[in-house]
User: Which sequence fits this backbone?
């Protein structure tokens, strides 16, 4: 199985991070910017500190303004390369950040290509867990 669907498993952790209730008690998914901002604040880091530690593919740090724009949903989520570094710096699950960004991590894409039946089983288990079943 690709992910542990047990109540204490990764599905439940991912869902709890990504869900937020609005005033009508409907559950909605948090944006990438919101998830990132909450993780950064929980770690006690400023935007300037995190930006200095996250490098683009060319080796230069991202700018604090770019990070601010991402957190306020004024920019699309960054590449998996940058998401991975953010996850490391924040001690946060990369898969959760990728899901919030609307992407699938490259390692899972490779597994999906070689085992489509396992992917289907994992999605069924994920849906069942999210629905509370």
Assistant:
């Amino acid at each position: 199985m690709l992910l542990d669907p047990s109540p204490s498993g990764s599905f439940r952790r991912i869902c709890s991070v990504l869900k937020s209730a609005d005033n009508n008690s409907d559950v909605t998914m948090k944006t990438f910017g919101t998830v990132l901002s909450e993780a950064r604040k929980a770690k006690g880091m400023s935007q300037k500190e995190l930006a200095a530690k996250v490098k683009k593919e060319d080796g230069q740090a991202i700018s604090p303004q770019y990070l601010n724009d991402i957190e306020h949903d004024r920019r699309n989520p960054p590449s998996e390369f940058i998401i991975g570094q953010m996850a490391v710096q924040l001690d946060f699950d990369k898969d959760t950040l990728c899901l919030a960004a609307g992407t699938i991590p490259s390692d899972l894409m490779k597994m999906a290509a070689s085992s489509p039946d396992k992917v289907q089983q994992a999605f069924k288990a994920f849906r069942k867990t999210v629905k509370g079943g």
